[in-house]
Each structure stands twice: as structure tokens, then as C-alpha cells.
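Need a sequence for this fold. Nothing fancy.
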């Protein structure tokens, strides 16, 4: 039977549509191809060959760090994080019209963020953090109306936050911290009602905290530290009942805290208000913040009796109320110590210079056995220092003044003792010993153990977390800042519970003082772990510790010592790991013993339209990226230890939930 005229017409139309579709897709492919080559053309330094495959020998969808959609073969994801890339970002990035995720973090991109980025209407995630981008935030970023996450922190951006950013109704994360932004925190940000994380710390904004931030009912984390802010904490902020993290540190905020803060913000995990001019009492309602882990209100003008019932804060591990006016002159002003006995995770208790005048109760010996830092320096405490303090076997640092009881000899982990500022009496000091760590050092477990037991991935992650917490404390919470100077696996000791303790502060020094300085004119530290800038005569810095930590992480995850024979001046552990990241062969360099217990882990797809990997493999890659980021040659390119703690915690949570 002959085809009818109608069916023939339909066939021709269908063929024409196929032809046009093919032409459009082909044209789109060519557009993406050219855009990628244009991006590469503005890269002036590519030390690890991240873009070496970006040429005409293979299809661009097969290039390293480029991911395409399966249907149209258009670029949907560019991932160049932590590859040491230097150059500027080509305006041709705006031609990648199918792009959903752009991740260029921890490189050396410089110059302006191109205006053309506003063409990327499908873009959902833009990570440009830890680069050297300058200029202003493009106003036409509102053209990326599907954006969900923006992280352009740790750059050199200037100007103010553009009003157009408030049009991004899907935005859940806005991270602009550590730039040079001015013009205040704009009230229009209150329109971003989907926002869950807002971080602008470390910008010289000036002005006050806008009350409109109280409109962000989905907000869980807010970081406004070191923004030159003044005025009071607006009442509207206390209405953000989902808040877990609240940081307003290092500003000039005045006024008092809402008396019902604990009832209004019951989910708080992290409360950081240090270095302001806040006054009034510390509200007893903070007792209701049962999830609190960090409570930091040091260097303010808080006054009155400390009435917080800490017994409800069972997860808290860091308390700092130092340099406030909390002495009430009442006989029982130190009784809050009694309520701390239920805080079994407590690691740090800083009561420096609080104007306390009472007697330390015997119950101080009931504090957590994990407590490793206790500072009572600069008060006017009197009477006998209870012998029960010897129960605090985890103490590494104790700051007091006066005669020490014999019981202190039981504090077998004590590494640092300061005695100034109080009026204690009692029996003379008799003994001070160091604890034998039954599980030896991390070095032993990585290289010397002859037993069949090995560290699992979960165990090594917890050890990394312990070390990162220690560095975060001495770098960011110790007054003054302390630098270790010789971090390496043999200086990390493991107790009965495999909790890591950082020891040997023989090369340590306090920044800004002459204390603990090393008199040697040679390189400070241990070969393989010492930061390269020390070899050029640079002063000790927290960045040097971060470098050592990065090498330690890479050693822990690969099982390779940085001084192994395979490494030399041109090929080090950092480069070994960087090349594996570049070549997508990270799992080939990992110590197989680490992941044995996860060999049967269920494979889950975690990245749409990209190469599917197991959760465990993704975690391992993330750990190696942290190690590489921390051990960059340039101190300015290294991760901040606070970011390390957060990222390691995310990885640990993922592993524990697997």
C-alpha cells in the first residue's frame, strides 16, 4: 500500500526535526569545546598537568576534570580544585550553557570574576574559594537564577555585596568570608529565605547586624566574625530556631544577651561571641542548649555570678569564659564546677582572668578524664588547691598560681604548667610524671607495628580529627597563639582508647612573644615535615603547622613516609598525591589496610551525570585533597585549620553513617 500524503509529510517533518536537533547539539558541542580551550589558554601555570588532556586528541567529555551529561554530551561540571593552577578565568566560561557546577577552589586564579558568568542559567554550585580573585562580585550573578551554593571565600574581592544577589531565591549557602568587602551587611539579604549557611567573617564591612537576617528562618549557620560590626545583637536573630552555629567573634558589639537565648536557640552546637564588648550576666537559659559543644565568650564585659547549669551540656568539649568580670564575691561562686562533672567530653576549660575570688571545690577532681587544658590563671582564688585535681589524668596544660598539692603528680599527661595570678596555699609540690601511652605513637602504627592489627580508615580519620582539633585550639583559641613547630607521627601519641595526643612542644613558641623560641639558626622541625618557607628563613607560623599536618595526613592515608627512597627534591609525597588526584588514581596509592573493612560497602551514586564512585572512595579522595591543600608550597594557598576541622568532620560523619 502506498503511503498517504499526510504520512509522508509527517515523516519529512520528523526527519527535519532530527536534522535540526543534531545540528544544534553539534553546534553546542563545538561551543563547549572552544570555551574549554579558551579557559585553558589563560592558564599560565599548571604544575601537575591538570589540563594536559585538554587537546584535540580525544573528545572533551573525556578530558580530566570535565564531566558531561549523558544525553547531549554538554559540559555540566568542571572540577579543578587543589591543582595549583595559576591564571585568570576566561569570559568564555559563560558559553558553557549547560554548566551546573563550577569548582575551582584552592588554586591561584586572579583578576576579576568575569561578568559572563551571569549567563550560566543552569549553574547550581559555584565554588571559587581560596584563590586570588579581585574586583567586585558581578552584579549580573542574578542571571544564575538556579544557584544553590556560592563559595568565593578567601579571595581579594572588594566593593559591596550586590543587591542582585538577593534575587537568588534558591540559594542555601553563601560564603564570602576572608575578602575585603565593605559597605556593611546589606538588609536585603533577608530576602534569601532558603539560606541555610551564611558566612562573611573576615571582611571590613562596618555597620551593624541588620535585623532582617531574622527573616532567614531556614538558617542553620551564621558567621559574622571580624567584620568591624558595632551595635547590639538584634532581637530578631534569636528567632532563628534552627541555628546550630552562631559566630559573632572579634567585633565591637555591645549590649547584653537575651535572657531566653537558650530556649529560643535550643539547637546551638557552636556559640562564639569572644572579643566583643558584650555585658550583663551570662543567661542561665544557656543550660537548655543541650547540644552545645563549643561555648566561647572570652574577652567581653560579662559580669555577675556564673549560673549556667553545665550538667545538661553533655556534648560540650570547649568552654572559654576568660577575661570577663564573673567574680561575684559570693562564697559559692565556684559551685558551677560541680555541674561540669556530667560533661564527660570536656577537653578545654578556660577561666583565665575572670575575677573569681572563691575556693576551688573538691569536685574539680570529678571533671572529665579527657580534660587536657585547665586555665585558672589571673584570678584571686584562695585556700587549698584540692588534691582531687590529681584525678584529671588527661591534663596537658594547667595554669594556676601557688603551692601545688602532691596529688598533681597523678596528672600523668601534664606537659605545661603555669602558676601565676592566684593565692593558693597548701602542701608543697612533690611529683610530676608523664603518662605512658599504651598504644605508642602514630608512627609505630604506620611503620613499625609487626602485629596483624592495623588502623582502619575510621580510626585514622578520628586520629586526624584529634590532631586537627588540637591545632585549631593552639592556633585560634589559645591566648597567645601557640605554634607547635615539629608536628609528625612520632609526636602523636595514642592512649588506651586510641585517642590521639599531640606531644613534644620542644620547638613550640607563642606568636608575638619570645617564649619557647628555638635558639638554633638551622631549619626548625623535621625533614619531610618542615614547611618549605622555614628553609628560606621565614619565622615560625601556624601555616607551618598546617603544612606538617598535611604531610602527616598524606602519610597516614598512603602509608608512605615523606623520606622514603622514592622521594627526592623533584618528587615529594605532596606531588605523589597531587598526581594521583590529577590522574584519578587516588585509590591506587592508598594503604589497602585502611579500607579492608569497607570492601563490602554498598556502592552509592553520589554525583549525577559524573563517574559514579563508592562513598568510601569519595571519602578517601576528599582526605587526600585535604592533605594536598594543607601541604601546598605557598602558605597563602594552604587550608585554614578551621576549615580542615569542618571538612574532616563531614567526612567522618559520612564514614560513620556508611
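Here you go.
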Amino acid at each position: 500500500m502506498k503511503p498517504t500524503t499526510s504520512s509522508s509529510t509527517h515523516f519529512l517533518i520528523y526527519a527535519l526535526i532530527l536534522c535540526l536537533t543534531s545540528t544544534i547539539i553539534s553546534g553546542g558541542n563545538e561551543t563547549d569545546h572552544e570555551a574549554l580551550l579558551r579557559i585553558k589558554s589563560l592558564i599560565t601555570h599548571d604544575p601537575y598537568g591538570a589540563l594536559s588532556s585538554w587537546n584535540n586528541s580525544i573528545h572533551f567529555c573525556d578530558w580530566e576534570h570535565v564531566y558531561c551529561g549523558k544525553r547531549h554530551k554538554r559540559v555540566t561540571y568542571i572540577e579543578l580544585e587543589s591543582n595549583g593552577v595559576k591564571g585568570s578565568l576566561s569570559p568564555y566560561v559563560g558559553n558553557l550553557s549547560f554548566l551546573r557546577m563550577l569548582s575551582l577552589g584552592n588554586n591561584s586564579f586572579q583578576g576579576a570574576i568575569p561578568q559572563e558568568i551571569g549567563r550560566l542559567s543552569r549553574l547550581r554550585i559555584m565554588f571559587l574559594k581560596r584563590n586570588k580573585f579581585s574586583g567586585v562580585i558581578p552584579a549580573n550573578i542574578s542571571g544564575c537564577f538556579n544557584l544553590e551554593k556560592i563559595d568565593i571565600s578567601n579571595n581579594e574581592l572588594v566593593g559591596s555585596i550586590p543587591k542582585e544577589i538577593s534575587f537568588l531565591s534558591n540559594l542555601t549557602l553563601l560564603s564570602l568570608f576572608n575578602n575585603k568587602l565593605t559597605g556593611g551587611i546589606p538588609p536585603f539579604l533577608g530576602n534569601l529565605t532558603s539560606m541555610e549557611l551564611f558566612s562573611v567573617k573576615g571582611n571590613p564591612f562596618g555597620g551593624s547586624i541588620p535585623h532582617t537576617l531574622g527573616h532567614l528562618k531556614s538558617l542553620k549557620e551564621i558567621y559574622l566574625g571580624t567584620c568591624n560590626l558595632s551595635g547590639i545583637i538584634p532581637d530578631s536573630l534569636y528567632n532563628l530556631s534552627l541555628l546550630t552555629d552562631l559566630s559573632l567573634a572579634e567585633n565591637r558589639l555591645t549590649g547584653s544577651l537575651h535572657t531566653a537565648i537558650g530556649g529560643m536557640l535550643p539547637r546551638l552546637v557552636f556559640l562564639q561571641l569572644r572579643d566583643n564588648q558584650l555585658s550583663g550576666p551570662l543567661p542561665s537559659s544557656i543550660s537548655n542548649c543541650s547540644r552545645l559543644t563549643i561555648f566561647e565568650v572570652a574577652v567581653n564585659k560579662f559580669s555577675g555570678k556564673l549560673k549556667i547549669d553545665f550538667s545538661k551540656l553533655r556534648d560540650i568539649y570547649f568552654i572559654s569564659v576568660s577575661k570577663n568580670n564573673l567574680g561575684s564575691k559570693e562564697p559559692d561562686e565556684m559551685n558551677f564546677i560541680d555541674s561540669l562533672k556530667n560533661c564527660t567530653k570536656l577537653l578545654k576549660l578556660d577561666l583565665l582572668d575572670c575575677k573569681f575570688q572563691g575556693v576551688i571545690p573538691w569536685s574539680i577532681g570529678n571533671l572529665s578524664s579527657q580534660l587536657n587544658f585547665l586555665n585558672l590563671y589571673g584570678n584571686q582564688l584562695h585556700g587549698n588547691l584540692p588534691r582531687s585535681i590529681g584525678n584529671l589524668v588527661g591534663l596537658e596544660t594547667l595554669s594556676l598560681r601557688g603551692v601545688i598539692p602532691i596529688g598533681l603528680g597523678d596528672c600523668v599527661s601534664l606537659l605545661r604548667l603555669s602558676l601565676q595570678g592566684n593565692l593558693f596555699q597548701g602542701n608543697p609540690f612533690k611529683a610530676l610524671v608523664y603518662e605512658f601511652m599504651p598504644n605508642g605513637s602514630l608512627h609505630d602504627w604506620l611503620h613499625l607495628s609487626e602485629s596483624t592489627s592495623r588502623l582502619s580508615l575510621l580510626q585514622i580519620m578520628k586520629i586526624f580529627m584529634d590532631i586537627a582539633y588540637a591545632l585549631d585550639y593552639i592556633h585560634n583559641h589559645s591566648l597567645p597563639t601557640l605554634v607547635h613547630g615539629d608536628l609528625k607521627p612520632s609526636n602523636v601519641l595514642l592512649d588506651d582508647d586510641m585517642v590521639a595526643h599531640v606531644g613534644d612542644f620542644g620547638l613550640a613558641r607563642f606568636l608575638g612573644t619570645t617564649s619557647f623560641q628555638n635558639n638554633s639558626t638551622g631549619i626548625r622541625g623535621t625533614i619531610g615535615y618542615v614547611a618549605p618557607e622555614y628553609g628560606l628563613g621565614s619565622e615560625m607560623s601556624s601555616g607551618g603547622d598546617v603544612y606538617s599536618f598535611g604531610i602527616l595526613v598524606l602519610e597516614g592515608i598512603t602509608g608512605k613516609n615523606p623520606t622514603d627512597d622514592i622521594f627526592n627534591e623533584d618528587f615529594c609525597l605532596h606531588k605523589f598525591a597531587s598526581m594521583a588526584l590529577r590522574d584519578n588514581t587516588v585509590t591506587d596509592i592508598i594503604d589497602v589496610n585502611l579500607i579492608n573493612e569497607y570492601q563490602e560497602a554498598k556502592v552509592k551514586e553520589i554525583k549525577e551525570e559524573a563517574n559514579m564512585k563508592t562513598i568510601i572512595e569519595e571519602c578517601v579522595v576528599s582526605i587526600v585533597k585535604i592533605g594536598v591543600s594543607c601541604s601546598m608550597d605557598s602558605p597563602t594557598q594552604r587550608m585554614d585549620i578551621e576549615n580542615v576541622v569542618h571538612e574532616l568532620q563531614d567526612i567522618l560523619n559520612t564514614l560513620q553513617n556508611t
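For context: Confidence is low (pLDDT under 50) at residues 11-26, 427-435, 514-522, 597-613.
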